[in-house]
Amino acid sequence: MSGETTTGGDPQLERELHRVGAELAAAFPSTARHPLRKLDSRAMQLASSDRELRAALFRFVDVVPACRSLEDLARHLTGFLEELPDAPAPIAAAMRIAHTRAGRAALGAAAAGGVRHMAHRFIVGENPKAALTVLRGLWEEGVASSVDLLGEATVTREQAERYAQRCGQALEQLAQAARGWPSRPILESDSSGPLPRANVSVKISALTPLLRPDAPELGREDAAGRLRPLLRQAAALGAHIHIDMESLDSREAVLDLTLELLAEPEFAHGPSAGLVLQAYLRDSPEQLGKIIDWVRSARRTPPLQVRLVKGAYWDHELIQARQHGWPTPVFEVKADCDRNFESLTRTLLAARPSLRVAIASHNLRSVAHAIAANRLAGGEDRDLELQVLRGLGDELQDALAARGFRVRTYCPVGDLVAGMAYLVRRLLENTSNESFLHEQASGTPLEQLLAAP
Ligand SMILES: Cc1cc2nc3c(=O)[nH]c(=O)nc-3n(C[C@H](O)[C@H](O)[C@H](O)COP(=O)(O)OP(=O)(O)OC[C@H]3O[C@@H](n4cnc5c(N)ncnc54)[C@H](O)[C@@H]3O)c2cc1C
């Protein structure tokens, strides 16, 4: 990355950013109550410090849904752990009890309980109806939400139909329930106009079994047939639909499909919609250029919302590229990704009011940078949305809401089996030594957390 993308040359921005960051950090509870600490499982702490154990645990969490009994679960767990060259003491003790039938059952029950306990921190309910109490509670505390319907991998047309149906039901139930929520002006409008209370995040890969990089048109057309009715429904209900971004092999199809559909005349004035830009991709500045060209020429209302994230598939993209001998599409140095995130933040802020900006991060520096850059550019706080993930960004969410920022929490809904892939991605991200949450939980001083990348 070139030095041009840092804020090093702008002491005013750095000063404001440190002021905002310190103010937000002051509202955080001590690291003892940090979200990673709250996961409070011995396995999580061990997983952070031991790479091989981490890999074994992730593979284990992946097979949990396929296990038929607790015995089965314990057999898998001990199988993975047996591969460890030097098992830490608590693991070695667990392994010893797994040599009897009763021991295996006890170990299996403990492991299943641990996974379930962890999942409940991230997943707000088994279905949208069950999640409504949590969503209303968040709203009353000044926090908006986006509901993500967790699903199994979509490999058949029936599964895609079912996912589309579940999205439709969620839109309906949320929109109906949200009408009865009390007024929260910060969450309900910005300079561009009203903001929907009901907000659903959708995955294109779940809307079609045909999304393949070698034949993108096929998947695009198939998904369009299910996304179009959802857009119509959201427009009729006054709800927002956000299209999540997944791994790079589906990016072109997802971006093209979203922009093509939103450009159709029937969607010229609704629904409110958004997409995601991943800053870990080296070519993300060009992608953003393409999106900005589109919003300026399409002139649709309400403006498209762009959610800026770093990206959740970093390990996958790196491994995939290395296996094929391709150049890596993602930055390999965390600071390069962070600098790019800040540069994209400033480009997005400058592109308003043609688009709406949402900064999705748990990194205090990235969030404080967005708030400071917005203010120094003359923007109002209400024209910047900050987003966090349920279970990981709870403290940041509360600190932002208490200071009058518009914050939206991404709330996965679904059963534990369907949520396993989601859970694994969150664990992988957050036990990595380069993760901001990991650094924060380890007690890194604030000055270092807020330092320029
Ligand atoms: C509301 C919300 C919605 C989201 N939606 C999506 C989505 O649709 N699609 C999606 O892909 N992700 C999504 N994410 C996840 C997001 O991409 C990040 O993975 C997550 O937020 C962690 O980033 P951070 O800024 O919070 O933390 P940080 O700790 O600052 O950053 C961690 C991230 O940095 C990157 N990284 C880690 N190591 C390196 C390295 N060595 N070199 C370069 N980069 C590295 C990775 O992207 C990693 O996830 C969403 C996040 C939120 C909060």
Describe the secondary structure blueprint for this structure:
Elements: H1 11-26, H2 35-38, H3 42-49, H4 51-63, H5 70-82, H6 89-97, H7 101-122, H8 128-140, E1 144-149, H9 157-178, H10 185-188, E2 189-190, E3 193-194, E4 199-202, H11 204-207, H12 216-237, E5 240-243, H13 251-262, E6 272-278, H14 284-298, E7 304-309, H15 314-324, H16 334-350, E8 355-360, H17 364-376, E9 385-389, H18 394-402, E10 406-413, H19 420-430, H20 436-441, H21 446-449
Parallel strand pairs: 1-4, 1-10, 4-5, 5-6, 6-7, 7-8, 8-9, 9-10
Antiparallel strand pairs: 2-3
Bound molecules: flavin-adenine dinucleotide.
Mind explaining what this structure looks like?
- This protein is α/β, with parallel strands linked by helices and 453 residues long.
- It folds into two domains: 3-28 and 125-418, TIM Barrel, CATH 3.20.20.220; 33-120, no CATH class.
- It has 21 helices and ten strands.
- Strands 1-4-5-6-7-8-9-10 form an eight-stranded parallel barrel, surrounded by eight helices.
- Helix 12 (216-237) crosses helix 13 (251-262) and helix 14 runs parallel beside helix 16.
- The N and C termini lie close together (11 Å).
- The model is unreliable at 1-5 (pLDDT under 50).
- The structure holds flavin-adenine dinucleotide.
- Flavin-adenine dinucleotide is lined by residues 244-245, 276, 278, 280, 309-314, 331-334, 337, 360-363, 366, 387-389, 410, 429, 434-436.
